[in-house]
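[step 3/7] inverse_fold.run input=structure_tokens len=224
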């Protein structure tokens, strides 16, 4: 098999679609007990380890695939699109990978041991010290960069308008402090952070062109 840029683009598209399925399933399965998704009871419930494993796997796969997907429409998104994408990507890596890694390995280990369960914070922050502050700052940057990136996509028409709108609205939805509810919380988080990129992945797989369109040689407009 010859490894070409076209093949890598299609693999990236498949990656974001599969990652969305993993993340959405993990989000729906994520247990919430008494309004707390990260309590000892939630972490040690039957679905707890499975949901964490699905979310961590899906997030890693998404982050591996995103650069290839973004490259498909990068020239049309312009400089502001690149800056907002890089900010979105880095903040997503910082908030998601650290959160899910700590949840799947460190906090779960503490919660599953009766002698250390008391060390799990009762406020749902997973870990003590500077970790909650880092999560709060990186999470805020992630949500704001979603809003900006989505607005850029709408303005430049780099992808169908609805995809940019979903990204912007998703960032705004995540900014709202929703109560934690079984299933619903997973939808609120995973739809905004995965649906738009999965939709671009589907576009790539349906479209015969897997290379970007330069600003001076545009293909036919992508239908809105």
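[step 3/7] decode complete -> sequence:
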């Amino acid at each position: 098999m010859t490894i070409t840029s076209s093949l890598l683009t299609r693999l990236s598209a498949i990656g974001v679609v599969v990652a969305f399925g993993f993340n959405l399933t993990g989000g729906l399965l994520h247990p919430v007990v008494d309004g707390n998704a990260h309590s000892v009871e939630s972490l040690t419930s039957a679905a707890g380890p499975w949901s964490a494993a699905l979310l961590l796997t899906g997030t890693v796969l998404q982050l591996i695939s995103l650069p290839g997907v973004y490259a498909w429409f990068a020239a049309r998104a312009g400089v502001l699109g690149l800056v907002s994408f890089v900010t979105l990507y880095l903040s997503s890596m910082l908030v998601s990978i650290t959160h899910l890694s700590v949840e799947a390995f460190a906090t779960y280990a503490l919660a599953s041991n009766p002698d250390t369960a008391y060390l799990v914070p009762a406020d749902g922050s997973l870990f003590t010290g500077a970790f909650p502050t880092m999560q709060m700052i990186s999470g805020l940057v992630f949500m704001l960069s979603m809003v900006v990136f989505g607005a850029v996509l709408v303005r430049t028409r780099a992808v169908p308008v609805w995809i940019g709108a979903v990204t912007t609205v998703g960032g705004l939805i995540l900014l709202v402090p929703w109560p934690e509810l079984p299933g619903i919380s997973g939808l609120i988080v995973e739809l905004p952070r995965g649906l738009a990129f999965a939709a671009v992945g589907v576009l790539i797989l349906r479209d015969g062109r897997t290379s970007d369109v330069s600003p001076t040689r545009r293909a036919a407009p992508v239908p809105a």
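[step 4/7] annotate
The radius of gyration is 19 Å.
Confidence is low (pLDDT under 50) at residues 213-221.
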